[in-house]
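DM from R.C. (forwarded with permission)

"hey, sorry to bug you on a friday — could you get me a structure for this? deadline for the figure draft is monday and I only need the backbone to look sensible"
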Amino acid sequence: RHSALTTPCSISPPEKPSFTERDYDHLILEVAAQHGVEPGLVKAVIAAESNFKPHALSRVGAQGLMQLMPATAADLGVERPFGVVENIDGGVRYLRTMLDRFGDVARALAAYNAGPGAVDRHRGVPPYPETRAYIKRVLEYHRRYQADFDQLDRARETADPAGSRWATRSE
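My reply, with the result:
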Protein backbone atom coordinates (compact mmCIF):
# COMPACT_ATOMS: atom_id res chain seq x y z
CA ARG A 1 0.00 0.00 0.00
CA HIS A 2 1.33 3.44 -0.96
CA SER A 3 0.44 6.74 0.61
CA ALA A 4 0.03 9.93 -1.36
CA LEU A 5 3.20 11.24 0.27
CA THR A 6 5.42 8.40 -0.95
CA THR A 7 3.93 7.79 -4.38
CA PRO A 8 5.34 10.12 -7.04
CA CYS A 9 2.82 11.64 -9.42
CA SER A 10 3.79 11.13 -13.05
CA ILE A 11 0.84 13.03 -14.54
CA SER A 12 0.96 16.78 -14.73
CA PRO A 13 -1.81 19.25 -15.67
CA PRO A 14 -3.51 19.79 -18.06
CA GLU A 15 -3.32 16.09 -18.90
CA LYS A 16 -4.52 15.18 -15.41
CA PRO A 17 -7.47 12.78 -15.89
CA SER A 18 -9.60 14.59 -13.32
CA PHE A 19 -9.68 17.77 -15.39
CA THR A 20 -13.13 18.81 -16.53
CA GLU A 21 -14.25 20.29 -19.83
CA ARG A 22 -14.10 23.83 -18.40
CA ASP A 23 -10.44 23.40 -17.53
CA TYR A 24 -9.61 23.51 -21.25
CA ASP A 25 -11.57 26.71 -22.02
CA HIS A 26 -8.64 29.14 -21.79
CA LEU A 27 -6.48 27.02 -24.10
CA ILE A 28 -9.39 26.52 -26.51
CA LEU A 29 -9.99 30.29 -26.59
CA GLU A 30 -6.34 31.00 -27.31
CA VAL A 31 -5.85 28.39 -30.02
CA ALA A 32 -9.22 29.06 -31.67
CA ALA A 33 -8.41 32.78 -31.86
CA GLN A 34 -4.99 32.06 -33.39
CA HIS A 35 -6.60 30.12 -36.21
CA GLY A 36 -9.86 32.05 -36.64
CA VAL A 37 -12.18 29.26 -35.53
CA GLU A 38 -15.08 29.74 -33.12
CA PRO A 39 -14.07 28.41 -29.70
CA GLY A 40 -17.50 26.81 -29.28
CA LEU A 41 -16.90 24.74 -32.41
CA VAL A 42 -13.49 23.61 -31.18
CA LYS A 43 -14.90 22.61 -27.81
CA ALA A 44 -17.79 20.81 -29.54
CA VAL A 45 -15.38 18.76 -31.66
CA ILE A 46 -13.37 17.85 -28.55
CA ALA A 47 -16.57 16.82 -26.73
CA ALA A 48 -17.71 14.64 -29.62
CA GLU A 49 -14.30 13.17 -30.38
CA SER A 50 -12.88 12.37 -26.94
CA ASN A 51 -15.26 13.64 -24.27
CA PHE A 52 -12.34 15.74 -22.96
CA LYS A 53 -10.10 12.72 -22.35
CA PRO A 54 -6.57 13.70 -23.43
CA HIS A 55 -5.36 10.08 -23.67
CA ALA A 56 -8.31 8.84 -25.72
CA LEU A 57 -7.38 6.27 -28.36
CA SER A 58 -10.03 5.15 -30.85
CA ARG A 59 -10.37 1.66 -32.30
CA VAL A 60 -8.95 3.00 -35.59
CA GLY A 61 -5.99 4.71 -33.93
CA ALA A 62 -7.15 8.33 -33.60
CA GLN A 63 -5.38 9.99 -30.68
CA GLY A 64 -5.92 12.60 -28.02
CA LEU A 65 -8.53 15.26 -27.33
CA MET A 66 -9.24 16.02 -30.99
CA GLN A 67 -8.67 12.42 -32.12
CA LEU A 68 -5.96 13.04 -34.70
CA MET A 69 -5.07 10.10 -36.91
CA PRO A 70 -1.31 9.39 -36.79
CA ALA A 71 -0.74 10.33 -40.45
CA THR A 72 -2.71 13.58 -40.03
CA ALA A 73 -0.79 14.39 -36.85
CA ALA A 74 2.49 13.79 -38.67
CA ASP A 75 1.39 15.98 -41.61
CA LEU A 76 0.56 18.75 -39.12
CA GLY A 77 3.90 18.40 -37.33
CA VAL A 78 2.27 17.16 -34.13
CA GLU A 79 5.01 15.19 -32.40
CA ARG A 80 3.07 14.43 -29.20
CA PRO A 81 -0.51 13.61 -30.25
CA PHE A 82 -1.50 12.96 -26.62
CA GLY A 83 -0.04 16.30 -25.54
CA VAL A 84 -2.97 18.60 -24.83
CA VAL A 85 -1.55 21.78 -26.38
CA GLU A 86 -0.12 20.08 -29.47
CA ASN A 87 -3.26 18.03 -30.05
CA ILE A 88 -5.62 20.98 -29.78
CA ASP A 89 -3.39 23.17 -31.95
CA GLY A 90 -3.07 20.46 -34.60
CA GLY A 91 -6.78 19.65 -34.47
CA VAL A 92 -7.78 23.30 -34.81
CA ARG A 93 -5.36 23.82 -37.72
CA TYR A 94 -6.84 20.76 -39.42
CA LEU A 95 -10.39 21.94 -38.73
CA ARG A 96 -9.49 25.39 -40.15
CA THR A 97 -8.14 23.68 -43.28
CA MET A 98 -11.39 21.72 -43.68
CA LEU A 99 -13.48 24.89 -43.15
CA ASP A 100 -11.44 26.71 -45.81
CA ARG A 101 -11.54 23.78 -48.23
CA PHE A 102 -15.24 22.95 -47.98
CA GLY A 103 -16.69 26.37 -47.17
CA ASP A 104 -19.26 25.41 -44.55
CA VAL A 105 -19.30 23.87 -41.10
CA ALA A 106 -21.33 20.74 -41.94
CA ARG A 107 -19.05 19.64 -44.77
CA ALA A 108 -15.94 20.57 -42.76
CA LEU A 109 -17.19 18.39 -39.89
CA ALA A 110 -17.97 15.58 -42.31
CA ALA A 111 -14.39 15.81 -43.60
CA TYR A 112 -13.03 15.88 -40.05
CA ASN A 113 -14.99 12.71 -39.25
CA ALA A 114 -14.98 10.69 -42.49
CA GLY A 115 -12.03 12.27 -44.28
CA PRO A 116 -11.93 14.91 -47.00
CA GLY A 117 -11.85 12.25 -49.71
CA ALA A 118 -15.29 11.01 -48.65
CA VAL A 119 -16.71 14.53 -48.86
CA ASP A 120 -15.13 14.97 -52.31
CA ARG A 121 -16.45 11.60 -53.57
CA HIS A 122 -19.99 12.32 -52.38
CA ARG A 123 -19.85 16.01 -53.39
CA GLY A 124 -20.99 16.90 -49.88
CA VAL A 125 -21.80 15.19 -46.62
CA PRO A 126 -21.42 11.43 -47.13
CA PRO A 127 -24.50 9.28 -46.49
CA TYR A 128 -22.79 7.46 -43.60
CA PRO A 129 -25.08 7.28 -40.54
CA GLU A 130 -22.09 7.68 -38.18
CA THR A 131 -20.95 10.87 -39.93
CA ARG A 132 -24.44 12.35 -40.06
CA ALA A 133 -24.96 11.63 -36.36
CA TYR A 134 -21.52 13.13 -35.63
CA ILE A 135 -22.38 16.37 -37.45
CA LYS A 136 -25.70 16.65 -35.62
CA ARG A 137 -24.04 16.03 -32.25
CA VAL A 138 -21.21 18.53 -32.86
CA LEU A 139 -23.64 21.22 -34.04
CA GLU A 140 -25.78 20.72 -30.91
CA TYR A 141 -22.71 21.00 -28.69
CA HIS A 142 -21.51 23.99 -30.72
CA ARG A 143 -24.66 25.99 -30.03
CA ARG A 144 -24.39 25.38 -26.30
CA TYR A 145 -20.65 25.96 -26.01
CA GLN A 146 -20.59 29.04 -28.24
CA ALA A 147 -23.34 30.61 -26.13
CA ASP A 148 -21.17 29.97 -23.05
CA PHE A 149 -18.13 31.56 -24.71
CA ASP A 150 -20.23 34.51 -25.94
CA GLN A 151 -21.53 35.06 -22.41
CA LEU A 152 -17.96 34.91 -21.07
CA ASP A 153 -16.89 37.40 -23.74
CA ARG A 154 -19.69 39.82 -22.78
CA ALA A 155 -18.66 39.55 -19.11
CA ARG A 156 -15.04 40.27 -20.04
CA GLU A 157 -16.05 43.23 -22.20
CA THR A 158 -18.03 44.65 -19.28
CA ALA A 159 -15.03 44.16 -16.98
CA ASP A 160 -12.54 45.40 -19.62
CA PRO A 161 -14.20 47.88 -22.01
CA ALA A 162 -10.96 48.10 -24.04
CA GLY A 163 -11.89 44.87 -25.77
CA SER A 164 -12.04 41.13 -25.63
CA ARG A 165 -8.89 39.08 -25.13
CA TRP A 166 -9.99 36.53 -27.67
CA ALA A 167 -11.16 38.49 -30.67
CA THR A 168 -10.26 36.48 -33.75
CA ARG A 169 -9.67 39.25 -36.23
CA SER A 170 -8.26 42.74 -36.09
CA GLU A 171 -9.97 45.23 -38.35
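R.C.: lifesaver. The two ends are 60 Å apart (CA to CA).
me: no worries. The chain has seven helices and no strands.
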